[in-house]
Amino acid sequence: MLTTSQAAERYMPEPNRVNAGETRRLPPSTVLWVLPGQGIYREGERASSLYQVQSGAVRVYRIMRNGHRHILAFHGTGEWFGLQDGDIHDDFAEAICNSQIRSIPKAGAPMPAINLLDIALSSLAIANSRQLIVARQGALERVATFVQEMSTRNGGANEFELMMSRTDVADYLGLTVESVARSFTKLRTRHIVQLFGRGQRYVQILNRTRLAALST
User: Which SS3 state, helix, strand or coil, does residue 73 take?
Assistant: First the structure.
């Protein structure tokens, strides 16, 4: 059985060109350019900064004792992450794709006008949304609810890109990759969604009423 530290090494994000330890010595509102799979911060590091996605997407996750990765949240353009209830990060954050991340130190320099309560409430809403998804027993229902969530976070659009891979989706929903793939196929064959583009990551909702019925 893998130890937690061994499991963490398996999923360890590659260090960013400007890593979390260095951002504490940089001026306020530093912009980080992060490549896919590169780390923004990691478990055990001091939670010295807040982060905002300027472009791209980020996944935040933990490594369980059994070695499995447990994705807590995805963050897209305009969304904040990295807010902790203590001084040490208890999770990992890494870029899903080429991303531009704004890093703001929480101490040692004047903070910009940021509503920390709004950030905390937004993080809580994302966490609650995920709990509702995972509470659903069927894989199809979980994936349908996930599509609904991603649509809502894209301004209610009927057509949007899923920046994350099917493996990411599986680790977020508590499913296998095969179950996620089968569920997307069922949604497509039932003419509820259309999938297209590279890796079939572009989603078009064809029947929002039927999608909503699966999500309730």
Answer: strand
